[in-house]
# Entry
Amino acid sequence: MAYELIETIELASAASSIEFTSIPQDGVDLLLVVSGRSDKATPVSDLLIRFNADSTNSYDRVQLVGSGTAVSTFKTSSSEPYLIGPRLPAATSTANTFSNDQIYISNYTSSSAKSISQDKVSEDNATTAYQAILAQSWSGSVGITSITIETFGVEQMVADTTASLYKIS
Amino acid sequence: MATPTYDLLDSTTLASSASSVTFSSISQDYRDLVLVVGWGYADFRFNSDTGSNYSKVVMAGRSAGASSASGTGTVIGPQYASSVAGVSILQIMDYSATDKHKSCLLRISSNASVTEATAGRWANTAALTAIEVRGTTFPADTTFHLFGIAS
# Structure
């Protein structure tokens, strides 16, 4: 066994968060795959991710973004209280379009800072396109036992949003 | 539950720092390979081929902005990353084929400093049987995992 599905969560109704708890500590790496859509009218928005409910300034990232017409980069100048997660199509996006986000978490049980490689796309078969690759990190010095995916504000993830967590061992 | 298609072929965790790790006698029973290195910088060399037979095109994001480059060299590796903590993921397609050059995708994530995506090609039709991971001094506890992806 190498890639083992820990759990898939599919929203039956709109919700503002998804949480994986009691993550087994007998793996090496984790892979989180998210397909989502927002109920927010506009604009599109990112989700945030936290490990072990840690909301302190302990997350950093650098990202490369392509929009279909331009390329841009961003690097955090100081640590933030969350990891950047999937970018969700807005409610006004083409019907039935969802994001696709893959987050690879290396050595998630270690007592050192965790390194994260992330690829994400959000495309609505119309005028909005977004793709990004990110290098992120969490300075937590304990194993990851829970992962929370949340919206930033009052918006919610729509029904049929899915999140799957795999353990790699 | 679907049948698992990622099989762990080999795994190494360094007990002390090392300048290279080699996977040899790689099984030819899979379609693709995925090699995950728990460090934000790594070069890759196939079948001990030290010739200038590796070409690549890379795009990267860093504080200096977006960058892209292409070229040919003696390894497939990062363009802008430095040797810091992070994760490197290399996927090699059709690695056992004997009628095509080997294409690969490399994602380098150096902790909050550089994110890179590289498309690479090894100009050799031989089946890939060995991979040397090199290019820096990997610290103790660095992990190396080689997966085979079933057809």
